[in-house]
Design a protein that fits this description.
There is one protein chain. The chain contains 27 helices and 30 strands. By secondary structure, the chain is an alpha/beta fold. The strands form 6 sheets. Strands 5, 6, 10, 11, 12, 13, 14 and 15 form an 8-stranded mixed β-sheet that branches. An 8-stranded parallel barrel has the order 20-21-23-26-27-28-29-30, surrounded by 7 helices. It has a 6-stranded mixed β-sheet with strand order 8-2-1-9-17-16. This is Bifunctional salicylyl-CoA 5-hydroxylase/oxidoreductase. It holds the Pfam family Oxidored_FMN. GO terms for molecular function: FAD binding; FMN binding; NADP binding; NADPH dehydrogenase activity. InterPro entries: Aldolase_TIM (IPR013785), FAD-bd (IPR002938), FAD/NAD-bd_sf (IPR036188), OxRdtase_FMN_N (IPR001155), YqjM-like (IPR044152).
Length: about 775
């Protein structure tokens, strides 16, 4: 096979080597525009796992690469005058020039032709003269551009500005992050050693800070001089250096995230940054390139045709690329939004940085550096309780206080509709459902949405709190929970609005009743769907009646003994229908601007707060995103909504999303709604609850420890296991003291079994 590799970077060179190793008869040529010993950029980071893959593929070049590596185990974070260091991370770096020279030498040994200082003006000559053309021509790929109608690249320019510099200042002991506050804004550094004399020194900042400094008007030399001044105390007199003199204009860049819809066309295939990029903050660009080179070389020799090899290459490598790009997106966004976290204590700030990509979990940090994580956990405990902890406990088991309510832990049984009420009265089903979850160890147990009137029910099976019989039934449940557990009970009150008079959840969700529908209300005559009835547009008299129903239900809830009240302002129900412009089309003072649309929900809250006991907190559940592209509520609006609720006196925001429109296209994933909670908590300055596909103790601990929420709500895990919290404690080796006395034997057994399993697996 005649093979042309367009681009002499790591991807092109290593693919050429891999092909020649599999069949020496291949004629392989590498075309590179630069000279043999030119390089731009400084160091390359690879993991031990990737090094193992290289050794399996080509032991000779891997051995030389290892000889040129600098290794470090720690991550050091310089922030607000403190240095926080965490170990066990296992990085290694090599100079990009050294790596290329190793690969060039190996290619020559194998008989690969290297053509330097050769411009690739047109892809057409290569596609006709060679059996296979590998376009490894980088992030600004000419091949991809020439055939963009085929490859259909999605190129997203990220927000931060960065400049790739080097220095002879040594950072031997750690991958180092430096955050400095200046008169122009915050600016930070990613630094790591890659040979005996040189370290990479990437300077990054927001575009606003970049403009405030005047970097847009500076030459490269002026930029370097400014950066040397800002980071002088970390450079110890060493200069900063640039090897990007080839760039026209400023050496500052914005990172481009590239992902192509397809990676091959006829006999052309994209590789490395030409096909997909991963942000430098997770150090995986070279990993993607080298491992893709190995994979494609394998498939070209294992599959029956080139087309089949391309298909397998794309199918299998795309999954890995998407995983890494997801992690890279999380990491990139953390740096883009770093000012959100600049109020955090250095310990929590470092934890947030370490877990930013979601590839490193709470227990993974424990495996890497148990001592550091335990110090962080003690910090969290001390910050929350104001006392020095006697023992280490995971964040999920640290108490939390709102007004006069103290929760024993931060696990919340999220509201889950049961559809088992009779005439709005909770039954023995509800008694069993709620009390079993309270006995299961959660700190706070929510009712399902409890409706304020018969007409405010979602379905005929929804419970209410508008009659004496309902109040009595709820009081029976609350009294048992208080007497037999240490859990607290939260009452969620709501009115169904446009989504009322519908079938039970296991029938047809949000569909109208086959018969017997009642009149429903809404801010505007906008139906949930073409099948649902059009709600009556509420008059001021209707609004007065609904407000008073909320007040009456809250008074009943207080008498029933609920510890906390939540107003349901999410998911398209009545209050949510006022908030989102998708269903609020009013032209009076209750429609139009967000401030107007919030007017009635805030009026209801203030009326309820006036009758709810002063020492008991009130939360509000909101939909932070309507998931309707270009329309409806988005994260910026959610921040404003949370600010209005905070100013009105809401104690905590329960941050959900969606379910406000049939047009919604939510983006699911683990902890997928937590970023909304994160932003509201850290920018609006109000306590939050995170909810949405949180299902592991690791999720809970990482969310809390990173300061992304104050409480974590779990729904489906508690349906599958009412004792989820107690089982989580046992699995973490935490001797939770809240097991009910009759269950002590079960507690002791599960703890013994967990200890035995730990010994067998060698868990640390």
């Amino acid at each position: 096979m005649k093979v042309a590799c367009l681009g002499g970077g790591p991807a092109g060179l290593y693919f050429a080597i891999s092909m020649k190793l599999r069949d020496p008869s291949h004629e392989v040529v590498v075309i590179e525009r630069n000279r043999p010993y030119d390089t731009f950029g400084w160091g390359v980071v690879l993991s031990d796992e990737t090094l193992d893959h290289l050794a399996e593929n080509d032991a000779a070049s891997a051995a030389v690469i290892r000889e040129n590596f600098s290794y470090w185990d720690d991550i050091a974070v310089h922030y607000r005058g403190q240095t926080v260091k965490s170990g066990g991370h296992g990085f290694c770096g090599i100079g990009r020039k050294a790596l290329l020279n190793v690969l060039q030498d190996r290619a020559k040994e194998l008989g690969i032709e290297l053509r330097f200082e050769t411009e690739i003006d047109s892809i057409e000559d290569y596609r006709h003269d060679y059996d296979l053309v590998v376009a490894a021509d980088g992030i600004n790929s000419k091949t991809r551009t020439a055939l963009q109608d085929v490859f259909k690249p999605d190129i997203q320019t990220r927000a931060c500005k960065f400049i790739w510099l080097g220095t002879h200042q040594r950072f031997d002991d750690a991958f180092t992050f430096i955050f400095e506050e200046t008169e122009h804004g915050w600016i930070w550094v990613h630094a790591y050693q890659f040979d005996d004399k040189t370290a990479t020194f990437i300077v990054e900042c927001s575009e606003q800070t970049w403009a405030n400094f005047g970097f847009d008007k500076m030459t490269t030399d002026e930029t370097i001089a400014t950066c040397e001044k800002v980071f002088a105390k970390y450079l110890n007199g060493n200069a900063l250096m640039s090897n990007a003199r080839h760039l026209r204009g400023s050496a500052w860049l914005n990172f481009n995230r590239v992902l192509c819809e397809t990676w091959s066309h006829e006999n052309i295939v994209l590789m490395g940054d030409a096909a997909a990029t991963a942000h430098f903050s997770i150090g995986s660009g070279s990993k993607l390139a080298l491992e893709s080179a190995i994979a494609l070389a394998d498939y070209l020799h294992s599959e029956p045709s080139m087309a089949a090899a391309f298909k397998r290459y794309e199918d299998e490598r795309r999954l890995e690329v998407l995983r890494l790009q997801s992690a890279a997106r999380n990491s990139t966004e953390w740096f883009e939004e770093v000012e959100r976290y600049l109020h955090l204590d250095p310990m929590q700030f470092t934890y947030s940085l370490l877990t930013r990509s979601q590839r490193i979990s709470h227990e993974n940090l424990r495996a890497r550096d148990k001592g550091w994580l335990e110090a962080a956990e003690k910090w969290f405990d001390r910050a929350a309780t104001g006392t020095e902890p006697e023992t280490v406990r995971p964040p999920m088991f640290v108490p939390f206080r709102l007004r006069g309510m103290e929760l024993k832990n931060r696990v919340v049984v999220s509201p889950m509709a049961q559809y088992k009420a009779v005439d709005g009265v909770p039954t023995d089903w509800h008694f069993t459902h709620y009390t079993s979850r309270a006995l299961g160890g959660a700190g706070l147990v929510y009712t399902e949405m409890t409706c304020i009137s018969p007409e405010g029910r979602i379905t005929p099976g929804c419970p209410g709190l508008y009659s004496d019989a309902q109040e009595t039934a709820w009081k029976r449940i609350v009294d048992f929970v208080h007497a037999e557990s240490s859990a607290k009970m939260a009452l969620q009150l709501g009115h169904s609005g446009p989504k009322g008079s519908t079938q039970l959840g296991w029938q047809e969700m949000d569909a109208p009743l086959p018969e017997g529908n009642w009149e429903i209300l809404g801010p505007s005559p906008v139906a949930w769907s073409d099948r649902n009835q059009v709600p009556k547009e509420m008059t001021r008299a209707d609004m007065d009646a609904v407000r008073d129903q909320f007040v009456a239900a809250a008074e009943r809830g207080a008498r029933a003994g609920f510890d906390m009240l939540e107003l349901h302002y999410a998911h398209g129900y009545l209050m949510s229908a006022f908030i989102t412009p998708l269903t609020n089309k009013r032209t009076d003072e209750y429609g139009g601007s967000l401030e107007n649309r919030m007017r009635f929900p805030l009026e209801v809250f203030k009326a309820v707060r006036a009758v709810w006991p002063e020492d008991r907190p009130i939360s509000a559940r909101i939909s932070a995103h309507d998931w309707v592209d270009g329309d409806g509520i988005g994260p910026d609006d959610a921040l404003e909504i949370a600010g209005m609720l905070r100013d009105a006196g809401v104690d905590i925001v329960d941050v959900s999303a969606g379910q406000t429109s049939k047009r919604a296209q939510p983006v699911y994933g683990r902890m997928f709604q937590t970023p909304f909670s994160d932003r509201i908590r850290n920018e609006a300055g109000i306590a939050t609850m995170a909810v949405g596909n949180i299902y592991e103790p690791d999720h809970v601990n990482s969310i809390l420890m990173a300061g992304r929420a104050d409480l974590c709500c779990l729904a489906r895990p508690h349906l599958a296991d009412p004792y989820w919290t107690l089982h989580a404690a046992a699995g973490l080796g935490y001797a939770d003291k809240t097991w009910p006395e009759p269950y002590y034997a079960g507690r002791d057994q599960i703890q013994r079994l967990a200890g035995r399993q730990e010994q067998m697996t060698g868990k640390v």
